[in-house]
């Protein structure tokens, strides 16, 4: 009789191997390879089970649409990202870097929901009840219908839900809660899968919205199995720089709304506050025209935001000039410098150090900011300032052409609303013509000012 062989399988992608390894050879995840059992085990047939009348399938036209309506949380920017609010029975995962403000944001959501008369249960597996109350006192989140609990056991959390019967459940965080039904310690893929599956099943059965906080790894991805992002209904990412107070919330997955909305927040001493109109956050306050600056209208989700790009060009004797950037892509800046040298006549850029940065700590990742970067570098190189009423939007190709960008009308409307009467875009044709137009406008305006004086 042949001895049954044992195999090992990755719980993430299903990759199999004959011996245990610490890292999956297919998806490169650590700690996901577990023993699968006998390879020659016979498959058992699944028999159909009896279906209760309450769960019997019925026509889609008979399903109640009111049960899936969005309910506002009271935090407008968070509702914008979710598509109008939280849907009953939805499981929402909020991830972000340590210290970015995830717990502060969810405590504000809990306070707004409690202020509207709903019962909210905030379960913290990382802080004690006294620590959460201390933060709530600072942010003004004290309400009688906001219940706090500090638990790390999943069964105890379920018992707290039965005792409080909340209208909203917040668990901070899913990686620190463990279940006795699963092996391993809290945070391992098997534990995260068990905890998330139980809480999501609870949300669907009771029509109870559940907000989960998720940790991230060193590369920025959500810690735990990839299955966690498939199980939940909404995945939101909380972004921000520790050196700036601005925070962004983006929806990476949303079964009940769009995924191209962005919510803006600002961290203050009293907690977190909404920024419904962040137009002036990314512009300098200087009233004196300075060379090396140009304004572009970037698109963050569906929101058009004016962002000022600053450039500094300094001569150097080093064999390899420096290219230092902050808030923009370094490879794209290098490409724009090459296009300016080859297509726009700025051949001396190769003997200068170039520094490019954005105002306010915002990061520009879209190609629509190419033209503003090129104008800012050309302005710094020629030491000629651009008029304050000019904004530049466009993508630059290697051939030196200015290509159109998405949502051009929305960008132009936002530029006009903020007082930018001249918008340089793809209508100029080439990057050389765009740079000359931006710099010649300042020269002609200065000549008109001198003629008026003398």
- Rg (CA only): 28 Å
Structural class: alpha/beta
Task: Give the H and E element order.
Answer: EEEHEHEHEHEHEHEEEEEEEHEHEEEHEH
Quick one: biggest sheet?
Answer: 9 strands, mixed
CATH superfamily grouping of the largest domain: P-loop containing nucleotide triphosphate hydrolases
The coarse overall form would be globular
Helix content bin: 25-40%
Question: Which CATH architecture of the largest domain?
Answer: 3-Layer(aba) Sandwich
Low-confidence stretches: 38-43, 442-454
Reading off the top of the CATH hierarchy, the class of the largest domain is best stated as: Alpha Beta
Strand and helix layout:
Layout: E1 6-10, E2 16-17, E3 33-38, H1 76-82, E4 91-96, H2 102-115, E5 120-124, H3 129-139, E6 146-149, H4 154-164, E7 168-172, H5 189-206, E8 210-214, H6 227-231, E9 234-240, E10 246-254, E11 262-268, E12 271-274, E13 293-300, E14 303-315, E15 323-326, H7 330-343, E16 352-358, H8 370-382, E17 390-392, E18 395-396, E19 402-403, H9 408-417, E20 422-424, H10 431-453
Parallel strand pairs: 4-8, 4-9, 5-6, 5-7, 7-8, 15-16, 17-20
Antiparallel strand pairs: 1-2, 1-3, 9-10, 10-11, 11-12, 13-14, 14-16, 18-19
